[in-house]
Amino acid sequence: MLATQTIGNDTTMPPVLIVHGLFGSGRNWGVIAKRLSDTRRVITVDMRNHGASHWEETHSYHDLATDLADVVESLGGPADVIGHSMGGKGSMMLALDRPELVRRLLVADIAPVAYSHTQVHLVHAMRALDLTTIETRADADRLLAEAIEERDVRAFLLQSLDVRARRWLLNLDVLERDMELITGFPAVSGRFDGPALFLAGANSDYVQPQHRPIIKRLFPNAKQAKIPGAGHWLHAEKPREFEAAARSFLNG
DSSP labels for 203-246? Predict the structure, then answer.
């Protein structure tokens, strides 16, 4: 089963499961999880091929949904689910494949569609880093800067570097090979009739007006909202606003 961390012990409401995006881990969501844990039991996961979880030879969204279903069932299900980017697609697939395991679904800045962008260049940058020369995270950042200009992107990626063991906590080979599956979304025929919120960053272009018909077909009761001043990493850029929106929706 996936590696998990549980914060809070209130069992009067269903647990909240938080699912991170590509190259991330559950620890990326520590601040949001801790804040929401004042009234809810919150579980963060490391997805397969990420963090402390197992490495597998496949990374399809049906696979990710099955992994998440195992976690929810271990919690006694159903759960409220928050998923960002890749984790949002995995969470949507969970709701479509196993709707009985999801009470409320919050999808953060992603739609159930295929995207044309790729993150393979980040895989190449991480793989090109000579880890034998790394003594500190600052060393890694300095070398990674030769390939990745954006400091916040480097900081995010370096959260998945075990400096002492000189290894990435990411299955880079499988993530690169299955990148089209990750940026894509499979053809599905199911639907999730429960409450769903598609929460986007106002400065992000991941959720477009033309995505509304497919969202409404798969998630008939979906509502959409935007966080002003936030981009794709809306939970990190506007944590208070994200927390407030999540709390309002999940407790509604």
Answer: T--SS-GGGHHHHHHH-TTEEEEEETT--TTHHHHSHHHHHHHH
